[in-house]
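Rotation project, supervised by the postdoc (A.L.). Task for the rotation student: set up a whole-complex structure prediction and record inputs and outputs verbatim in this book. Inputs entered:
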Amino acid sequence: AQSVTQPDIHITVSEGASLELRCNYSYGATPYLFWYVQSPGQGLQLLLKYFSGDTLVQGIKGFEAEFKRSQSSFNLRKPSVHWSDAAEYFCAVVLYNNNDMRFGAGTRLTVKP
Amino acid sequence: DTAVSQTPKYLVTQMGNDKSIKCEQNLGHDTMYWYKQDSKKFLKIMFSYNNKELIINETVPNRFSPKSPDKAHLNLHINSLELGDSAVYFCASSLGLAVTDTQYFGPGTRLTVL
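Outputs recorded:
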């Protein structure tokens, strides 16, 4: 079945540590790929997106993501996490020529002082 | 100024009631969306409108009826509310028609059906 998977439900990291959030998709073709962040009590905010070209994508707030076709993955990274990064992170895909955005189940990030 | 606003922020109601959630965007965008986020944080698109015209209509019970009086507003009316309708509903907007355009989300409306 076509899907987008975020294997980690909850991740805890120390402030200043590096972060990687995983996202995998299972579609026949490469979809358009997105990462959104949802701070507590807020709506979603787009961090970055990948359509084509350079597989390393830079986003807002110091985030980046790397598309790896061989692994059907689009993992989100940040070299040094700040307390304000504590939030829920959603990976999303849109299949080419389709107007349906599918979201993963989300990964909740907790940042320890 | 808030870009995408929703009212109310919280809505508690009884089963069988009819309720509406309002959404307004002041970004000048042409497309607006409604999403439902269930208790497990699973987010799914429900509808999208472009310039007051329905574009996306996912498999949603016909108790849910979006209404767009103008391109800055997309309201969601729900008839005969059921327990399973309890969720957070997000409105969003984007400049273009494609769902791949950057979407700007409202803060959400938490609906609780008792």
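Student's summary: Chain B touches chain A at residues 4, 40-45, 48, 55-56, 58, 90, 92, 98-100, 102-108 (CB under 8 Å).
Supervisor addendum: Chain B has a mean pLDDT of 91.
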